[in-house]
Write a structure and sequence with these properties.
Number of helices: 11
Number of strands: 15
Strand content: 15-25%
Order of helices and strands: HEHEHHEEEHEHEEEHEEHEEHHEEH
Shape: globular
Helix content: 25-40%
Distance between the termini: 34 Å
Largest sheet: 10 strands, mixed
Structural class: alpha/beta
Radius of gyration: 22 Å
């Protein structure tokens, strides 16, 4: 899915990309990497909008600037004058200006003609602010591009309207038995009803994990949950599109697959995973900062332990996402029962 998102961002025929996804699902990573590519290969005035100026400063210091420093083609374009490389603005030597500002400061949207607009967490923006931001790209005509990425807000808000006005793509798979292309849906996941105690209402999570299967919505074929099954279903990726032929595209995806894959790697159920011998203790502690649980409706969810930082856990999750993007996990995997040793 990330590969598809990044391709859409730099596709000249697509004017708007809208991403609605859960937290810690790498929905910001794809635009960040795309921005680095744009700076080096498709330069033009760019505006990165976070919710507030403070959040924009944090984004610049903790994510964008380190990314640019470690991307040689971008680093080679840094200005010689240090005053032209600040948290809020960078003026690259190829003539491309990049502003990193807060959307809820209305002054940041004035007096700028933008080719590339990136909007983060738009569900927190003031009503009407997305439309004001979009107006900044009008001077570039068909070359102007808007990229919005956010958690879901409320039905009918600006983020929801923008998402539903495009083609609403969902990560999907083709059933190898009947050929039906379908999205991964919670209603097609099933597990042993006895996993929930009828008297206490408590869940036996071990039984849920052991019994969960995915069923094809067309032919009813049952796919057991295993690394091999996931690899096969993702080997020939598909996407369901609600409306074809639009110049605006949108994506919806969850972070469960990346975090579940990380859990499999760490438990030895998939490819080898390891850490260097001198890894800091704090790093190891943060890898234990989240746990997998179920909502009241019985849907899987990853939760953070109270007062436990999870930054390094996020970093590991993003590496799994990157591995998916370069197709490291698409080869046929050995089923757990077939493994030796």
């Amino acid at each position: 899915m990330m590969r598809d998102v990044m391709a859409a961002i730099v596709n000249p025929r697509i004017r708007t990309v809208s991403i609605v996804a859960s937290i810690q699902s790498s929905k910001t990573l794809a635009p960040e990497l795309s921005l680095a590519y744009i700076i080096a290969n498709m330069p033009g005035p760019a505006l990165w909008l976070d919710t507030t100026d403070v959040n924009a400063k944090n984004e610049s210091e903790s994510r964008l600037q380190p990314l640019f420093e470690n991307c040689k083609p971008v680093k080679n374009l840094f200005p010689f004058d240090k005053n032209k490389k600040r948290n809020a603005a960078i003026f690259f030597r190829n003539g491309m200006p990049l502003w990193i500002l807060g959307a809820n400061n209305k002054r940041n949207l004035q007096s700028r003609s933008i080719r590339w607009l990136f909007g983060d967490e738009t569900w927190l923006w003031a009503p009407g602010r997305m439309a004001e931001a979009e107006a900044r790209v009008s001077a570039f005509g068909r070359l102007g591009k808007c990229v919005f990425f956010s958690q879901a807000g409320t039905a009918g808000d600006d983020t929801d309207i923008k998402f539903r006005s495009s083609d609403c793509r969902k990560w999907s798979f083709e059933c190898p038995h009947c050929g039906k292309v379908q999205a991964f849906k919670w209603e097609n996941l099933h597990w042993d009803p006895a996993a929930k105690d009828a008297d206490s209402g408590k869940w036996n999570f071990h039984r849920v994990r052991e019994s969960t299967v995915l069923t094809c919505e067309e032919c009813g074929h049952v796919f057991p949950d295993s690394p091999g099954t996931r690899a096969r279903l993702n080997a020939s990726p598909r996407r369901l599109v609600r409306y074809a032929g639009k110049t605006a595209v949108s994506y919806y995806f969850s972070n469960l697959s990346c975090k579940d894959k990380l859990a499999q790697l760490r438990s030895g159920q998939a490819e080898p995973w390891g850490l260097p011998k001198d890894v800091p203790v704090n790093y190891l502690k943060q890898l234990q900062s989240e746990y997998r649980s179920l909502t009241a409706a019985g849907k899987p969810i990853w939760l953070q332990y109270p007062r436990r930082p999870n930054h390094y856990f996020d970093c590991e999750t993003m590496q799994v996402c990157a591995a998916y993007m370069v197709k490291l996990f698409e080869k046929k995997e050995i089923e757990p029962s077939d493994r030796k040793g």
